[in-house]
Amino acid sequence: MSEPPSYNLLDQPWILAVDLDGREQALSLLQVVDGAPRLRRLAGELPTQDVAILRLILAVLHRALQVTGDEEQVRETWGQWWEAGALPAEHVVGYLETFRDKFDLLSTSQPFFQVADLHTASGKTSGLGKVIADLPAGHKFFTNRAGYGAESLSLAEAARWLVHCQAFDPSGIKTGAVGDPRVKGGRGYPIGTGWTGNLGVVVVEGANLAQALLLNLVLARPSPEDDLPPWEVGEWTAAPTDQVAPRGPAQAMTWQQRRVRLFPRDGRIRDVLISNGDQIRVRNQHHVETMTGWRRSAAQEKKHGEPQTYMPREHASDRAVWRGLQSLVAAPPVARGARDGEQALEAENLHWVASLRTAGLLPRELPVTIHAVGAVYGTQSAFIETLISDRIAFRAEVLSDAALQDAAVRAATVAEAGARTLGRLGQDLAVAEGRDGVPDRDRGTEHGLQMLDPRFRGWVRDLSGAQMAPQEEAWRQLVREQILQLGDEMYAAASPAAIRGRVRADRNGRPQRVDAALAHLWFTRKLRIDIPLVTDDLQADRTESDQADATTEKEHSDE
Fold it and tell me: Under 8 Å CB-to-CB from 12, ≥6 apart: which residues?
């Protein structure tokens, strides 16, 4: 009698990664743990898939590497791992082997991240389109996946999308499973997206995957005894548990928002059933969730009658991550507690890295990258509309130095001010032609931001405490020169109608002439005011001195 099929994620190659030489590999979970120093990063189908798998590995580490002692002892242990350049793989492997059977994707009793006998009264399933996030519903012509690739999945693909589903699955009506008391008329009504879909995920990346795992392994918030990830729990059923909040970081990173069952046939996954799982209370999870910033919500405080309510801070889909540095790196840290009046809290993994730097465990010049990842959902969060993935790199000292953080925020503000001034020039030139000019303003602003984007990333990457003042001045000079050049190009391309200009009523109703030359004059004057330089002050001093000398000379000649 043949053995039932098995596909154990500890041994089978299902995680996609890129090594230090740029080669893509498919690896098992044990291979990733052992080979993390030789891997650059995870490289799955989507950035959200990589985040979901990274969080799965971090949950394993939180449970496998229980560090005891005071804060200094915990950091010292972490520092030993960092100095070795690798995870303590023997401890992690030993832990995983303890739960080996729970990592079998095809187990007939306790399959990984699934419910073995999940079924519906009608026998209906959900269809693979519900689990494959890069197969948009109703838009089959806007994907590279078609035919056989949309009708079935390899076991490795299915494992990746299963982890992604638990993290980012959209909300909306789900197929109602037998055994779920919430089902009405065969339907499971919306309980929200997967937990990670609520977050503006912040990942701290280093030179390789081992560094990334260590940098995001926040040991200041250890996993408590009852912080049980799915593989440490007994058999799962269709019914929800009585939990509404994770008890620690491991549960937060593997929260079972869905009940899922994969249907294999002939060595491939042919169908899937996705039903509602455990609904999570989104608010005030900043004590267990380490990979997102938080914002205070007055509306939620009023709704729930709570004195302080914090909601996960999502990333803005319409702007680069550097334009939101104020909320990313300059907010008070979660680890200090949510104090009265704080409107934003820093992601705890960023504060953890800052504390390691302050303790001398990380060199100040260590290059680190913040990777911002998130999903933007459509109407009623029923589908994923777009994904966010953006990186910004700088020295580790920026995370631990408030002065450098302020300098970075000021530099971003300078860039935005310059771009807005360029946009205003576009609007004034359009007005000189007789048009409204608002679309021209928006295009001009966006053009300025696009041109400054790579320059800001390069500037902030090299920002250091030793050179902060001259670096800031150099940045203001660069922005002013770049925006002035773009403005000159815009002025040179002005139409004959804009050059002739027109008379319009100003905000006080008085007639005002607007033409290309005046628009350019206003632009250069505004740019000088918005982005002042030290050399402007020196020039002003020289001008005043020259005027004084001229007055004295005239007085002498009059005498």
Answer: 28, 105, 155, 156, 159
